[in-house]
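User: What would this chain look like folded?
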Amino acid sequence: MIKQILRYQFSSLLILALVLSGCSAIKTVDFESLVDTTSKPIDFQIKKTYKLEDDGVYVSNEFTGARLNGFERKNDSTAIVIIKPENSPINNSAYYAFKAWSKNARSFYFEFNYPEYYKHRYMPKIKENGNWRVLDSSRVYKNDSIFTIKLNLTDTPITISAQEIQSSNDVNLWVSKTIEGKDYVRLKSYGKSTLGIGLPVLDIYKGDKKGKDIVVLLTRQHPPEVTGYYAFQEFLKTILDDSDLAATFLNKYRVLAFPIMNPDGVDLGHWRHNANGIDTNRDWSKYNQSEIKQAVQFIATALKKDHSKVLLGLDFHSTYEDVFYTNDIRKSTTLPNFIDDWFTALERNIPDYKVNEKSSNSTKPVSKGWFLYGHNAVGITYEIGDATPKDKIQLIGKVSAEQMMKILNQAVVIK
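Assistant: Here's the prediction, encoded as structure tokens.
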């Protein structure tokens, strides 16, 4: 009897192992130039409050999304702010974020110091009394590669950051508020990050999801790229605004929206990478990183279970200027005319707007190539400029969502 029970338990465990193995067998995608995305060590910043006792000046990185690796006195009016990346090699996205205050009200200069071959990128943003603003240019000083700012300090800390801080918690709060009362939006988790942070996805459709083709929206693969996230917010809000246009769209299609793909990197204040020291937007081939592997598994399961296909993938990022990165291959995709039609509509509906498109077939394992080579779908990297004003971001995000829905509502999809 005991032998039978043990044999049954062993058989059950074997079946479970086979099932789990089958679930994890997701299709990889080949690229011309592979990138090594096996995990690499990172240098964790030491969380502390730095003190310049003689000057009565303090700075701190003891908060989520901070980046500060050292703080040294230069003279009685200036300090050196030391900023380092999480590891290298890494692209020049020199992110920083710290709080500063003083015992007594005074002006003080902060000179930024980066490792060799890296330079200052982001114009400082200041948060005071709960509000963000760009630091006035009259308080910014550039001398060759040396970047210095002047701040008026008091005993109330202010936050100085490369971009407005939008932590994983901030994202979750925004998601909860945005989908409140919308029963056609299902907030799900597709797994956890390396450090155990939940990975949210919004599953959006009306009616029956069976057979509905899918539009995928991604953002925050790269931590500092907040302006792209703001465009994602406006794009998604437009899809959820209960208009007749959106209702028609969501009765025909299904949207999978991933609002924070790299929460570890965001919360750790990373320049580019996740907690394993990897650029997740180079992992869309072999899926060595759990964040990408779990997202791909979630999409693959939805496609198989509901007999659907991916039509379009938009990955929201930020760079030096507004630009759309597209693939040259279009005629053989499920939406061969979408890109041309969409860009024409954007220029027609946004005053004085000219689409900046850069087109080339993806050679490295990035998301836009994964949509093309893995699903024969249109893949676009939707980039917003580092310094693009918020009102312009909101307009572009809103109009681009509206025009996407109009085009897809009338589209004849190639099977």
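The chain has two domains: 49-161, 168-410. If you want, I can go into more detail on any region.
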